[in-house]
Write a structure and sequence with these properties.
Layout: H1 3-15, H2 19-32, H3 37-46, H4 50-63, H5 68-76, H6 129-133, H7 139-160, H8 162-167, E1 227-231, E2 243-251, E3 261-269, E4 281-284, H9 293-298, H10 300-303, E5 313-316, H11 331-341, H12 350-367, H13 377-390, E6 396-401, H14 403-414, E7 419-425, H15 438-455, H16 457-462, H17 466-479, E8 482-488, E9 492-498, H18 500-512, H19 520-528, H20 533-541, H21 551-563, H22 568-578, H23 592-602, E10 621-626, H24 634-641, E11 647-652, H25 659-662, H26 667-677, H27 686-690, E12 708-713, E13 716-721, E14 725-727, E15 730-732, E16 742-748, H28 752-758, E17 774-781, E18 784-793, E19 796-805, E20 808-815, H29 821-835
Parallel strand pairs: 4-5, 4-6, 6-7, 7-10, 10-11
Antiparallel strand pairs: 1-2, 2-3, 3-5, 8-9, 12-13, 14-15, 15-16, 16-20, 17-18, 18-19, 19-20
Helix pairs in contact: 1-2, 1-3, 1-7, 2-3, 3-4, 4-5, 11-12, 13-14, 17-18, 17-19, 21-23
């Protein structure tokens, strides 16, 4: 067998639930193809013991040291280290040693012998009975039987992979992530430079000095001299654009010892204009804890390109994040979070495990001399001010997204002398507390959803009384939670208990993502009908919830500026107001009140006097909000506008979070560009006034008719949907990332009985079906007699038609949602059967 044939057979066995058979097949694969990166990885997913899994994933990394999935799995299946007690660590003073990181698994020596694979004595997989009988036949007959078996495996893999096909798109879901924007392309592999020695910086030939600076902050500061060091860019730069990179070296704590310094990664995308404007754009990323430098490179067309035709674009990784040093990483917290998603933590020890992970992370940061009290928005604003001056600019135009708007507002308040104008997209007010305001944010988003659907005739007809249906469903799920397990292949199985608040958090996530707002009413009604497509997709996205976010910085900032800025009594009142449980705040473990205790244990304090004072300013400001956004609801933008005398408010009626990054029409970004050209004049609202309300997805009822065209596919001439997407034998509708609707067409030498037997074996989990296919009738068309079958997969309909035509069998298979099955069966499946030849 070829490497690919082994892989298909192994995947089929794995998906059927027969891990022993899968590991046997895949063991044979790596024996014959020892450099098969994917083979070793799949074998690691199939074997039973932690030692075996670790060995396989190390083999993957020996072939490809940059394989991210193997790194995650190796971390996931490695034992948790002992948890240090934070009080036992005394931060070195003055700081002189480097911050160290563990040696990557890919660089560790593989000293142990293979724990379970014997190349000399490895047994071959069991042969099917028909293969034994065919040994007596000619070589030609044996080859034909092998081809038939492989085609069955291929068809079975296609059936078993339907959920996987959908989930490959779910990286776009930001429903449980606070970062601004997913990169439009994969980030290049970055070799992180060694952590800096924390000593007072010395001047080099590439360093630019500023005079000693006294910065305005709520506490007295010490005199210091910030430095700038040029450095290579650790990302691929766009063609025909000059990009320069470096590090700003500033005190970690401006109110303490200025010899303890940190390095802030800076990138400047220089204008393509011969005569650029003197005031650049300064992009401020969200989170808190989100990377900005690599994001700007990866999302260059969205974030950078619109601005550099007239002015430079600057961004930096805020202290504690991304390429800045130190980055407040929390590998233990990230690891525990993923273990939790995979159902690997006993519910009874859930709180204890999270607490230990939090303390372990905290202890490691303290042991490396990190001053957690120095990581605040006030300090980041002072960093911004220093960077502007180090680069030689007088003023900048701030462009903040999500939490980045909070940093912009603090900069406008503390350092107004460097700000020409400010673009505030999806506002986080300084004076507001995200936790206390959460119920109001939920109410804002849900009210917008319910009223918009009720005002839309099609939505109201398809989903009547949506508000009451939703809250009744929340009550029902609270009373009778549903356990939902999803194979988030190839990472593992994600298991979640779906209760009312879990559903609420998913709907909030759909409204946050502008591209998914139109699926929210459909999701509510489908969950009511036990169709969990959206929840399955949400589960698949959960293991990546910390991607692009630095957990240690996120915890520090949220604790200081939100959790400890309120009281336990206020948090308890918030909890009772909306029945909040631990789903949304899983990174902290536990409910809001326990979160308060966790933040105290983290070792930071609440905000200083005056730190949360609102900004009152006449700096020209553009405020942009999405009407559906639950993370930064429109009332936040209106609130700050009252204190910004030269501000303009723009609300997008069809958008969620950060319209400038998600508005496919380009209107939001065009308004931002118009504003920055002349901040004193209100931008033209023409494009905003042309934007239509959200067109919600409703079930297909048969009208309008699906346009069919005749084409040859996989050896079959058949009528297929004109505007569906073709993918490896399947025509996929893809009305949303949660849409499983697709139809496949095949022709092969298998018989109908062989096909039926293949999907009828309970020992192999029905090859991805819920049960064996049931006969559903016979249909004659084009001189062929079609046998019709029906089954389900994850509770959703699966229709199969098969007709023998000489030595071949024509096969048509359709997957659909229950609320559309009858219409699609009548208007698509049967017409395809009638046209096939």
């Amino acid at each position: 067998m070829t490497e690919q044939e082994y892989i298909l057979a192994g995947i089929t066995a794995f998906k059927s639930g027969d891990r022993q058979k899968a590991s046997s097949i895949l063991s044979q694969l790596v024996k014959e193809y020892p450099k098969s990166e994917r083979g070793w990885y799949l074998l690691g997913m199939s074997v039973s013991t932690a030692e075996q899994r670790q060995y396989c994933f190390r083999q993957v990394l020996s072939i490809n040291p940059n394989n991210p999935d193997a790194k995650k799995q190796l971390a996931l299946h490695s034992p948790l280290p002992a948890v240090p007690t934070p009080q036992a660590f005394t931060p070195p003073s003055p700081r002189s040693e480097q911050v160290t990181t563990p040696l990557p698994a890919s660089e560790q020596a593989f000293r142990s012998a293979p724990p379970f694979i014997s190349y000399e004595e490895e047994q071959e997989p069991d042969e099917p009975a028909e293969a034994v009988e065919e040994e007596k036949e000619s070589a030609k007959q044996a080859a034909a039987a092998k081809k038939k078996k492989d085609r069955l495996i291929l068809i079975g893999s296609a059936v078993a992979g339907v959920v996987i096909l959908i989930c490959t798109f779910i990286a776009t879901i930001v429903m449980l992530n606070g970062s601004f924007l997913r990169p439009v392309s994969s980030a290049p592999q970055i070799q992180t430079s060694p952590s800096p020695t924390r000593q007072a910086p010395t001047v080099t030939s590439t360093s630019t000095q500023l005079p000693p600076t006294q910065l305005p902050t709520p506490l007295p500061t010490v005199a210091y001299t910030p430095l700038y060091e040029e450095a290579p860019c650790l990302f691929d730069t766009p063609d025909n654009v000059k990009v320069t990179c470096g590090y700003a070296i500033v005190p970690e704590n401006r109110t303490a010892n200025s010899t303890d310094t940190i390095k802030l990664a800076v990138a400047v995308f220089h204008s393509t204009s011969i005569h650029p404007e003197p005031d650049p754009v300064m992009f401020l990323q969200g989170g808190p804890g989100g990377e900005a430098v690599r994001l700007s490179a990866n999302a260059y067309e969205v974030l950078v390109q619109p601005f550099i035709s007239e002015r430079d674009y600057i961004t930096f990784d805020q202290r504690g994040t991304g390429l800045s040093e130190p980055a407040l990483k929390c590998d233990e917290l990230d690891k525990v979070y993923r273990q939790d998603m995979y159902g690997m933590i006993d519910p009874e020890s859930h709180e204890y495990v999270y607490k230990n992970a939090l303390l372990s992370c905290n202890g490691l940061l303290l042991a490396n001399g990190v001053d957690l009290s120095a990581y605040s928005t006030v300090e980041s604003a002072a960093d911004l001010r220093d960077i502007v001056k180090l680069l030689g600019y007088e003023k900048v135009n701030l462009y903040g997204a999500s939490y980045g708007t909070r940093l912009a507002l603090v900069t406008m308040r503390n350092h107004p002398e460097i700000v020409r104008s400010s673009i505030l997209d999806s506002v986080v007010p300084i004076e507001s507390n995200a936790l206390n305001e959460y119920p109001n944010a939920v109410d804002s988003a849900l009210s917008k959803l319910f009223t918009s659907c009720a005002a839309n005739p099609e939505c109201n007809r398809a989903y009547p009384d949506l508000e009451n249906v939703f809250w009744e469903l929340v009550k029902e799920l609270d009373a009778n939670p549903v356990t939902l397990s999803t194979s988030a292949y190839p990472m593992g199985t994600v298991t979640e208990t779906v209760d009312g608040y879990y559903l609420l958090s998913v709907i909030m996530g759909l409204e946050k993502s502008s591209d998914l707002i139109n699926t929210a009413p459909q999701t509510i009604y489908r969950v009511k009908a036990k169709d969990y497509s959206t929840l399955t997709a949400a589960q698949y996205s959960l293991p990546y919830a910390f991607d692009g976010i630095t957990p240690g910085l996120y915890v520090s900032m949220m604790c200081r500026e939100h959790v400890l800025a309120t009281t336990q009594e206020e948090l308890q009142a918030t909890t009772e107001k909306i029945n909040v449980n631990d789903v949304m705040w899983r990174p902290f473990y536990g409910d809001f009140v326990k979160m308060f205790d966790a933040c105290k244990a983290w070792g930071v304090t609440g905000p200083d006097l005056g730190e949360k004072e609102a900004v009152v300013s006449d700096i020209p400001s553009l405020i942009i909000e999405g009407a559906y956004d639950p993370a930064t609801p429109p009332f936040y933008g209106k609130q700050i506008g009252e204190d910004l005398s030269n501000s303009f408010y723009f609300e997008f009626p069809n958008m969620g979070h950060v319209p400038t990054g998600s508005d496919s029409s380009g209107c939001a970004m065009q308004i931002a560009l118009d504003f920055i050209k002349n901040p004193a004049v209100e931008p033209d609202r023409t494009c905003l006034n042309k934007i239509k309300e959200v067109e919600f997805l409703v079930p297909y009822t048969g009208e309008p008719a699906i346009e069919l065209i005749t084409k040859s596919a996989s050896g079959v001439t058949v009528d297929i949907p004109a505007d569906w997407y073709y993918d490896e034998g399947f025509f996929v509708r893809y009305s949303s990332p949660f849409d499983i609707t697709q139809v496949g067409v095949f022709s092969d030498t298998v018989t109908i009985q062989e096909l039926k037997d293949y999907f009828s074996s309970s020992a192999y989990g029905y090859r991805g079906l819920d049960n064996a296919p049931a006969e559903a009738g016979v249909r004659d068309a084009n001189g062929l007699t079609w046998k019709l079958y029906y089954s389900t997969s994850n509770g959703r309909p699966v229709d199969v038609a098969a007709a023998e035509n000489g030595f071949n069998t024509l096969i048509i298979i359709m997957f659909s949602h229950p609320d559309e099955h009858e219409a699609l069966y009548r208007t698509l499946f049967l017409p395809m059967v009638d046209s096939a030849r």
